[in-house]
Amino acid sequence: HVRVHCPLLAALAMSFHRAMAKYFAGRTQQTTPHIIKYCQPQENQLQAFRRQVLAPAWFAVFKGPMEKWEYMRSVATMRNYGIMADDATNCRNHIFERAMELLPEDIKTHRYRRAMRACEFS
């Protein structure tokens, strides 16, 4: 950023920038209205190859087995504590609290006992 100390040069610089702004603003305005037509985005050959070949191979080789391993590990951890996946969720949610109110008393009791058993084991 250059500071101009002379008022005459400052006025010239300002008018130059104003003239340039007007020039570019005038060029961006179109004289004829441009009609925007909707068209389905077409995928190129690389995107099609990625969708048809790479993505299924990535899921079959890496992502699928990794997600299965994570699920089995979490189920094994919960079984060690004697709890279910529902018992490990956050119960401070207003929707979850309402669902807990609608449960029968015997299911509430079983859930509470599983939670207490998990607290003793941890």
Automatic annotation (TrEMBL):
Coiled-coil annotation: which residues? none
Alphabetic keyword roster:
Signal
Q: Which InterPro entries match?
A: QCR7_sf
Q: Which domain of life is it from?
A: Eukaryota
Cited SUPFAM superfamilies: 14 kDa protein of cytochrome bc1 complex (Ubiquinol-cytochrome c reductase) (SSF81524)
Q: What's an example Gene Ontology biological process for this entry? A: mitochondrial electron transport, ubiquinol to cytochrome c
One GO CC term, this protein? mitochondrion
Q: Decide whether keyword Transmembrane helix is in the record.
A: no
Signal peptide as annotated in the record: 1-21
**Would you tell me the protein name for this molecule?**
Uncharacterized protein
State the organism named in the record.
Oxyrrhis marina (Dinoflagellate)
Recall the taxonomic lineage recorded for the source organism.
Answer: Eukaryota, Sar, Alveolata, Dinophyceae, Oxyrrhinales
